[in-house]
Each structure stands twice: as C-alpha cells, then as structure tokens.
C-alpha cells in the first residue's frame, strides 16, 4: 500500500517547484494516521505527541469524526449563512451549555475567530473606544489585525503599517495593564495559557486581576482559547481551569476534531453588537464543520477524555519534573493538561531532530521550549513510550 505514495524526496521536490516556501518543513511525506500514530510514504511509523499542531486533540482520524463527516458529505456539503442549518444551531447550543451560556459565531480558523472578537469589541464600545491590550509573547493569528495583536516583533518585520490601536503589556504584569488602560480602551485580549509563546502559565491571581480591571473599566475580557479550548486542559475550556470567566472566548484548532473550524462565543448581552452585515465567514458553521464539531464534543464525553487528560497530565508532570532535577540544562517543565512545555537553557531544534530520528514527533517553540500537545485519547503506554524517548534525548544533550 505504501508503494502507491510519492516518496518523501519526490514530494519535497514537488514543493520546491510549486508551493510557496513560507513554512519550514521536515523532509517527510506523511500519508496516514491513526490515533497517536502516523506513517510516512516510506512506511515508517511515528508516535505523534504534537498531532496536527494542536488540531488533532482526538488523535488522527478519530472514528466518530470520520463517520459523522462521511454521513454529512453524502447529505449536504454546504449551505450559506443566509439559511438556517439545524446542526449549526445544535452545535452552538452544545458549546453554550458547556461554557457560559452565551451565543456562537462560527468561522474557519483561529485568526478569523480573533478577528471577530476584535471587531465585536470595537463595535460594542462605539467609535471612541478602539484600543485593545494584548500581551508580550502572545499569539493570535496571521491576519493583519491578529498579527498586530500578536506582541512579538519578529512577526511584524516588514509588514507595516500595522493596525492601529493595540497596546502591549508584559505577560503577568497587572500594573502595566492598569497603566495602559485609558478612555479609548475597549478590551483586554489574552491566551489563558500562552501556547506558541512557550506554554507559559499565568502567575497566581493574574487572570483574576484582569477580570477585575475589565469590570472596573467596562472592558471586554477576551480569552483566545484557540489552543487551550475544547478539553485541552482537562476542562472544557481553559477559563474553567483558572475559574475566571471571560466575556468573549475564541476557539479553533481542535474544535472540530481535526476538520477546519473556528468559533467565537460571547454573552447574549454582548452578541447583538455584531450587527447583521458587520461580519461574516462564508464557510463558517458549514454542515461538515458542524457535524464534526458536534461529534467532537460527544466523543470527549462518551469516552471520558477530560478525565484521561488529568491522568496523563500527572504522568507528564511527574516524569519531566523528575528529569528537570537531573539535568541542569532543563530550566523548567510546565504541564497544564495536554500542554507540555520543557524550557531548556539551550536551543531545542536538535532535540526535535533527534526525536524525529527515533520516530517521535514533538515541537520546539521560542527557540528553547520543547512543546508537546498530545491527543486526549493517548494511552498511558503511548505516553510512557514518548516520555522515555524524549527523556533519553534530553538526558544526553550536551549542555
Ligand atoms: C494557532 C493559534 C491561532 C491562529 O489560529 P489559525 O487557525 O492558524 O488562524 C490563534 N491563537 C492561538 C492561541 C493559537 O494557538
């Protein structure tokens, strides 16, 4: 079967000629996935602890999602948002019941969900209040507004002029936020746990402090949960993990079990500010995404995956904390549900390559943070297998 695929080298050549070179890519043609395993064109099997860059929170090709999508594409592939679609309404209901009881706007990606949140915040507070406070090291997407919201200079180079009205505060610094708030501020936007920024967990009381500031100054508190949402932390949403409720919540990545989909949730009081005609996404909440989104929530429930996250998180935390004590070149191990960040004193690229050589897929972000975003339905045996390989590679790192 593997023989029918183009070799990895031929695929690389195809890309070199025809695909815009805006990504750093490994020279591997991945062809098939099942759960936390994935195979390349040469038939090599990998354990994937970073499935789908956070999108495949249920592993590769989860059966309930496959079935729901197969059934849907045979019935209805797309209808525009000028009509009512039962499954979109049902999906919104399921999300509402598991979050703060509000309403949903659907789109296709994290950047789009955050764009919707940014527009909503500006519309909600009228033309004189347009400024949004975001955080250094954050990541909110690649559209021009969400790139601007992303307070990392390396992503801004050469793109100016950027969108006006974004103010940046150091992550974890409440006083800096306080000082940035003025009469023109309409919102604070933050990832409850910074993902791309290095799995950075907020200091105790920080999110509560933001909630309080938002209340005092009548600002919308926007949580970008594109990475922390949909069960990643062992709670349905990251805000529940910290017990701080935002006014606006954005979701994508794992929302539809690996199918493209995004959403913005907000309260029924705030939602009407996104007036008819002010925002749209042609494919948002389409029948396939809706079917997959519903199946995702149902699978998490039926297979008790939120509980599994807590069990696995403890295993990752104890293993990597122990390792950290043995290796002076490991600065810190941070675990929040199925988000693992291992901060090194040295560059992490060689760790990723050495793991790849041993058929383990992981990620490195910010140059020196090894990042895992494992599937919720990873087994303890698979987790142990991955921990063993990664620990061995880290132990043998020359500091
Ligand atoms: C990945 C990510 C985004 C961007 O999502 P896209 O679907 O790539 O547009 C935004 N915010 C966070 C926190 C993310 O992790």
Using brief descriptors, characterize the structure shown.
Aspartate Aminotransferase, domain 2; 36% helix; globular; 399 residues; alpha/beta; Aspartate Aminotransferase, domain 1; binds pyridoxal-5'-phosphate; 2 domains; single chain
Overall description:
This protein is α/β, with parallel strands linked by helices. The protein has two domains: 8-61 and 304-395, Alpha-Beta Complex (Aspartate Aminotransferase, domain 1), CATH 3.90.1150.10; 76-302, Aspartate Aminotransferase, domain 2 (3-Layer(aba) Sandwich). Helix content is 36%, strand content 17%. The chain has twelve helices and 15 strands. The protein has a seven-stranded mixed β-sheet with strand order 4-10-9-8-7-5-6, sandwiched between helices. A four-stranded mixed β-sheet has the order 1-2-3-13. The chain has a four-stranded antiparallel β-sheet with strand order 11-12-15-14, with helices on one face. A hairpin with a 2-residue loop joins strand 11 (330-336) and strand 12 (339-344). It is globular and about 55 Å long. The model has no long low-confidence stretch (mean pLDDT 97). Pyridoxal-5'-phosphate is lined by residues 109-111, 114, 139-141, 191, 195-196, 224, 226-227, 252-253.
Describe the structure in brief.
This protein is of the alpha/beta class and about 400 residues long.
Helix-strand layout with pairing:
Layout: H1 8-18, E1 30-34, E2 37-40, E3 45-48, H2 63-75, H3 86-98, E4 103-107, H4 110-124, E5 131-135, H5 144-149, E6 166-169, H6 174-180, E7 185-190, H7 206-217, E8 220-224, H8 238-242, E9 248-251, E10 262-266, H9 287-302, H10 305-326, E11 330-336, E12 339-344, H11 349-357, E13 360-361, E14 363-365, E15 369-372, H12 380-395
Parallel strand pairs: 3-13, 5-6, 5-7, 7-8, 8-9
Antiparallel strand pairs: 1-2, 2-3, 4-10, 9-10, 11-12, 12-15, 14-15
Helix pairs in contact: 2-9, 3-9, 10-12
